[in-house]
Structures are given as C-alpha cells and as structure tokens.
C-alpha cells in the first residue's frame, strides 16, 4: 500500500510541479489529493455508499482546483 500511495503521490507531484507550483507545495497538494482519494475509496468499502463518495470526490476537486494555479 505504501508503494502504491507513494507512486501516485510522486506522479501527481510532478504534474503539479509542471503546472508551476513550487516543489514543496506540489508535494503537499499531491499528498492531500492522494490521501483524500484513498479515504474516499475505503469509506464506501465499509458503508457501501459509492454515490456519496462520488459526490464528495467532485466537491474535493472543486475546492482544491483553485489552489493548483501557480502564483
């Protein structure tokens, strides 16, 4: 699990860096997105509410996306 999450975090870090974010910020944004998505997969495995997880994922992206712009 650690390797999988690390690979996704590394991949998204490079994407955010390529979007112009500084390295530390890119790494933090990637960790936030990967860890939140992991939770949005684990939760429905326990309670079966995939529709709620889908809605939460969309809200998460809407809230995070403005911060992905380089300043």
What pattern of helices and strands is seen along the backbone? HHH
Terminal Cα span: 33 Å
- Poorly predicted regions are none
Q: Biggest sheet, in brief?
A: none
How much β-strand is present in the residues?
under 5%
Radius of gyration: 13 Å
* Helix content class: over 70%
User: By helix and strand content, what is the structural category?
Assistant: mainly alpha
Number of helices, where a helix is a run of at least 4 consecutive DSSP H or I residues:
3
Mean pLDDT: 94
Give the total of beta strands: 0
Task: Give the SSE layout.
Blueprint: H1 2-18, H2 23-47, H3 50-64
Helix pairs in contact: 1-2, 2-3
Description:
There is one protein chain. This protein is mostly helical and 71 residues long. It has helices at 2-18, 23-47, 50-64. The N and C termini lie far apart (33 Å). Helix 2 (23-47) runs antiparallel to helix 3 (50-64). The protein is 80% helix and 0% strand. The chain has 3 helices and no strands.
List descriptors.
single chain; 71 residues; mainly alpha; flat
